[in-house]
Amino acid sequence: MPNEESELFIKIKEEAIRFRKLLEDCDKENTNLVIDCFPIMSCKLSSLLLSYHFLKLWPALEVKGITAITGENSDITHYWLEVDDIVVDITGDQYNLIDEVELNQAIVKSRPFDAVHVSKKDESYLYSLFGFRETEPLKYGFPTIAEDFIEDMEFAYNQLLQQKECM
């Protein structure tokens, strides 16, 4: 692995851990886009906020949002980010909290999941647990996302950062 790539991996992991802590510690009742049952059912919103954070730090970064499915009727969904060949999942630990009758055996057997999973794509367990449904390019300025939602992300992001400054 070239030096530059390992530096990016380390920076992404550090920022993912830092951002997850912001989500955990925030006042969920009063923070936009962070729901009270976090991390359960929070994977897409949290990942989009993390992509907003990444693109604030590194505007030229190429980020992809991955929507994935599994289960008997494809009724178990998940969402995470990819940056080059790096996988970033900041809500996988929700599958430790969800009752096993709502999950499939592969997920239950793979417990426990870390709160933050940053891995090389070819080493990540996510691709063996979930099938793919959609890949969404996430670029600086979010040209494929509605303006009002971008404003919501900006507001939530600022709330999360302000909360950190108050701690």
Gist of the model:
By secondary structure, the protein is of the alpha+beta class. The protein contains six helices and five strands, in the order ααβββααβαβα. It has one domain.
Structure description:
The chain is of the alpha+beta class and 167 residues long. The protein has one domain. 43% of the residues lie in helices and 19% in strands. The chain has helices at residues 3-25, 43-57, 94-97, 105-110, 126-129, 147-166, and strands spanning 63-70, 76-83, 86-89, 117-120, 131-138. The chain has a five-stranded antiparallel sheet. Strand 1 (63-70) and strand 2 form a beta hairpin.
Number of domains: 1
Biggest sheet: strand arrangement: 4-3-2-1-5
The low-confidence runs, each spanning 5 or more residues with pLDDT under 50, are none
Mean pLDDT: 94
Query: Count of helical segments?
Result: 6
Which overall shape is indicated by the principal axes computed on the Cα atoms?
globular
What is the helix fraction of residues, given as a range?
40-55%
Broad structural category: alpha+beta
Largest sheet: 5 strands, antiparallel
Give the H and E element order: HHEEEHHEHEH
Give short descriptive properties of this protein.
19% strand, alpha+beta, 167 residues, single chain, five-stranded antiparallel β-sheet
